[in-house]
Amino acid sequence: MPKSGTSKSLTGKEVEYLKTVFKLLPGRDMVGSLEVADAMGVSCATASEYLERLEEKGMLKRYRWRGVILSRKGMKEVNRII
User: For 38-51, how does the pLDDT look when each residue is reduced to its tens digit (9 = 90+)?
Assistant: First the structure.
C-alpha cells in the first residue's frame, strides 16, 4: 500500500527526474531540460516529456526557453523521499 502523500501518483522514473532537478538546482535559478537529459542519460525530447508530466502533476514549474524549478509541492515531495 502506498504511503500517503503525492508519491502514489508519481512513477519511479518521475521520482528520479524530480530528484535530478533537485540535485542540479543548488546555486542556480533554473535547470534546463538539456542539463536534465545529460544527467539522466536520455535525449532532450525524453527529458522534456517527463518534465512536462511533472509540471502537469504540480511538481515543478516550466518556463519556456529558460528551464524548470521545483514547485512547493515538488520540494515537499523531494524532501519526503530523500
Answer: 999 999 999 999 99
Q: What is the pLDDT of residues 3-49, one digit of tens each?
A: 444 445 899 999 999 999 999 999 999 999 999 999 999 999 999 99
So where are the chain's domains?
Answer: 12-77
Residue 37 CB contacts under 8 Å (≥ 6 apart), including other chains: 43, 44, 46, 47, 48
Beta bridge partners of 60: 70
The CATH code belonging to domain 12-77 is 1.10.10.10
The three-state DSSP-derived secondary structure of the chain is CCCCCHHHHCCHHHHHHHHHHHHHCCCCCCECHHHHHHHHCCCHHHHHHHHHHHHHCCCEEEECCCEEEECHHHHHHHHHHC
Q: What is d(CA 81, CA 76) in angstroms, rounded to the nearest whole number?
A: 9
